[in-house]
């Protein structure tokens, strides 16, 4: 009989997609250079006026990965200042996020299925147990922002596909 692993359902998933986004950022920077596109045009691009720009999509994907690792591991969520304005800044944000999620001991995440987790504050406060938080909140939000970042670049002519998004595992 196989047991369920909260660690395996979270940290390796976040790492796979964050590493893919990191590689996609390299391609985006090369694309901007090759096509003589101002990098800010890609970094601040939105699919629709009421949507967040590319840079913010990467920041939020990182926030959900580090937030899930911290909450599932019973730790305080580290706060990152949202000050990235270049591809290099975004790559550094991803690297910092990967380093943090790697620092949360697997043993602290295992068994967190029933851990009480609270997000937000005031009227936006949400209460979960670990497994519901991971599967119905953290992962969907993480994938939404990672996918939106991918879609923004694809929409702007970057030659990337599903293999680039999924990466290697």
UniProtKB/TrEMBL annotation:
- Which InterPro entries did the record assign? DinB/YfiT-like, DUF1993
- Which top-level group of life is the source organism from? Bacteria
Q: Name one Pfam family in it.
A: DUF1993
- What's this protein's name? DUF1993 family protein
**Upper taxonomic lineage:** Bacteria, Pseudomonadati, Pseudomonadota, Betaproteobacteria, Burkholderiales
